[in-house]
Specification:
152 residues, membrane
């Protein structure tokens, strides 16, 4: 009825297994005095480093502002020069375009001046994009407006 056993049963090692720890395992945590000592050393170092970095950043920002202020007249003069160059191109284009129209005077609309000027007003008035780029395609003007405003 029963067959002979042809396997070996696992048995405990000689002397038995090690005992199971079931009592409370002690835990470690830093002592409050050590925490206070560590914080009293770390916080002043952090405050000193923060103030030092703030001072360096302020000096860098002041230097950047001074450089920007120094270049501002140069950039404005360059912008004015480019606008005048474009206005001259516009005038030349208008002369070329309207050369066959009898009685046409450049810068006027059938004899009426397009530019309202005051002889007592000696300050430069920045022309609009539509005035400066009147003889260009709309997409070129808008592309120039986008790139110019993107840089500034």
């Amino acid at each position: 009825m029963s067959k002979p056993v042809n396997y070996k049963q696992d048995m405990p090692p000689p002397g038995g297994y090690a005992s199971i720890t079931y009592k409370k395992v002690p835990t470690w945590s830093p002592k409050p005095l050590r925490i206070v000592a560590a914080l009293s050393l770390i916080i002043p170092v952090g405050i000193w480093d923060y103030n030092r970095r703030k001072h360096v950043a302020l000096k860098s920002m002041i230097e950047d502002d001074e450089g920007r202020q120094a270049l501002e007249p140069l950039m404005e003069a360059e912008t004015d020069r480019l606008i005048l160059w474009q206005m001259r191109r516009n005038r030349d284009e208008e002369n070329e375009l309207m050369k066959d129209v009898p009685g046409w005077v450049t810068g006027t609309w059938f004899g009426e001046s397009l530019f309202k000027t005051n002889p007592n007003f000696d300050k430069w008035v920045q022309p609009t994009y539509y005035e400066a780029y009147s003889h260009t395609r709309a997409r070129d003007m808008h592309q120039h407006m986008y790139t110019r405003n993107k840089i500034a």
